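Sequence in, structure out.
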Amino acid sequence: MIQPVNISMDVLNLTTLAPMLVAVVGALFILVIDLFKSNLDKSLYVMISILFLFVDLIAVYESSLTFMQNGTVIGLFDVMQIDGLAIVSQFIIVIASMLFIPLAMTSKRFHEYSYPEYFALFLFMIAGFQFMVATDNLILIFVGLETASLSLYTMIAMHNRAKSFEAAVKYFTMGALAAGFYSFGAMVFYAITGSVEINQIAAVLDANSYKNLGYVFVAVAFLLASFAFKLSLVPFHTWAPDVYEGSSAALAGYMSIVPKIAAFIVTMRLFEFLVHSDIVWLKAILYAFVIITMTISNLWALVQSDVKRMLAYSSISHAGFAMAAVLIGTTEANTALLLYWVMFTFTNLGSFSMLWISRQKNLLPGQSSDHSYEKFAGMIKTAPIPAVIMGLFMLTLAGVPPFALFWGKLYMINAAVISGYTFLAFIMAINSAIAGYYYLKLIVYMFMKEPVDSRYEKVYTKNLSLTLKTVIGFAAVGTIFAVFAINPLLNLIGGFVYNSGF
């Protein structure tokens, strides 16, 4: 006779699920409202989304208090793992989402915002990313990854332009391939260790002195290819510029931040124990990924004539720069990565949102693209305040001192030097200098050239809604404030990372 199993609520520890459940409940709530009363104004769905995101943020904050008191919290049969990495990354995910979603009120032209399903998909996507960062279980990581990815594919397609459909299909196709790579790599790890939990995999491999090194190589190759796609590392980056171009400007900025921080956290959990095991070939592969991604994407960004594609390639370069932390594998490097991404969140989302000011439904005669450099020529005369704010974002992304990303880059380079990666630090510094050229190029167009077409002035005026001004203002204030909060942020993030054992 089968005896009943008594499960203690302490074992389940359902509080570890609170942030994700808030987002899921919010998504279901929106769908239920639409079921009973359709065709409601989109502002209602925006407010509901912001409300649930705010509650989500509170739940993450409560998790951080528990972590500071008790250390890493395990729940749901040891599947959930709330540590410092999970908390900091969830703060980035939720805050970036709270900045993004109000942009749905800035334009009636983009019809995807009139569908309640768009906002439900958005909240499901956030829950997926939160599951990814708050576990070391390969199965739950996959569930979170696919939940977020499938939602994102649909959101891109809902933009309903020819390039949007193309972008969604490309992203879906490459995403399906990456999912297959991930599944195969995880299967190999399970076959040689008997576990799908990263900590247990690390313990078994260490106990066996990595005697199955050939199988480890196969697993790592497939998993690294999968996450190289998610992080748009060269040569798995080919989808990124086209997908960013086919998405709305704000969604492109969001995609350059939130999916990547989730992928970075999983990559840190998955590969750093292998880096610490002094597996030479893995270090060599990561070294190549970092240097090639930084350098090649910078060179491509130099020759772009469209600002949106330039920002897309620059985002790839930033991902390569941040990937150096996984290679270095120290607490200082991981702290620098998270500090870097906090600053990058405000600046890059603000930069892409600024492109909404110059967006057009139909191109003017002779206009090659919607965001060409020529369109920004003389912007200081036609739209002085947006020009100044965009200049602030460009100087920050370029890492010009004393702006925020300069300190993020400085700490990352310092972590490389301390760990003996002197050549890597040199390449990182060179690439930062190269990146300065194409960021400053846009500033030259805005401040030192004459306007090309007087009709652009009407575009700037027409698109500057109150909501857009508010979101861009928050991003600009966050970018400026970060300069004065470097040390507190560094100490706070460093404490979370150190107490997580990374």
